[in-house]
Amino acid sequence: MWTVILIISLLKVIDAANGLDAFHQKYKLLNDGNVIPALAFGTWANTSDLHKVIPSVIYAIEVGYRNLDTAHLYGNEHLIGEALSIVFERGLVRREDIFITTKLDVSVPSREMVIPSLQKNLWRLKLDYVDLFLIHTPYNTFNYPNYDILDIWRGMEDAKKLGLTKSIGISNFNSTHVNRILKYGKIRPAVNEIEVNPTRTQLDLVAYTQSQGITVMSYAPFGYLVPRMSNEFVPPTFGDPTLVKIARKYGKDTSQVVLRYLMDRDTIPIPRSHNPLHISTNADLFDFSITQEEVYAINEFNKNLPAYGSGEGFTRLIRQAYNALLQTMALLYK
């Protein structure tokens, strides 16, 4: 706790010296007292792009990202571990400079299996602890009998108490799921990582989650602005007049406006890319802010349309991803 207080104090000194609100711009204080960078780098990759993960992560750290988001389901934690080992060895950053988020294996059926599963995450990441550990989904993906997400949450609480993770949280939880954890859990989730973007604004869920003191991390921040598996066209595009007008006002790209929109809604966007130019552009967000009127204008693009499905459709996608993961692991470790 004293470390957190010291960090905040130092950042406030910097604020006073520079006349900028550096702390609120670049960091957020979680409800458990831990500090999280306000922008994350997403590490999910198609199987065909796995060879790009290590150089992309290293480059992201070189250009300033200090928050990496991964998961067991992505099948690339071992690559993140390799990248981290390289940047630590080079002296680019220290372990304490990097915020690492990973997620629980979706096949874990009970509290007793949470700790052994997290220890495998840590082995792949080559770390002694992670900064944030999330339940990946509230759904009973494999239809286990007597499955109870609250039982899983108690295992997450065990992990925090053991120091294997600094913070614990949830992902893809709706307000009903959140309420169950708040009502019966002993530790309040620090984060809810959900899909938020211009075509899925999730205004109610974001507002409710934040009202409970839970920080929102926004995955798929570009929504349908980038190609999706469905190949469905859903406006806007990066060339939309509304986005272009805002971008010209601030001398920014429209992609940066979309990410800044999520930040100005007090969420943490998680852009991902293997393109060095996109990686660096997506990190250049801290010298401007859009107005509330511009946030409202971007909200108007909402179609309540998820890029990754919802409900049973989302669960099917998770099962498919898990089966693909098993095939990939079989090839890697045969």
UniProtKB/TrEMBL annotation:
Pfam families: Aldo_ket_red (PF00248). It comes from the Eukaryota. Keywords: Signal. Residues 1-16 form the signal peptide. Residues 39-302 form the NADP-dependent oxidoreductase domain. PANTHER family: 2,5-DIKETO-D-GLUCONIC ACID REDUCTASE, NADP-DEPENDENT OXIDOREDUCTASE DOMAIN-CONTAINING PROTEIN. This is Aldo-keto reductase AKR2E4-like.
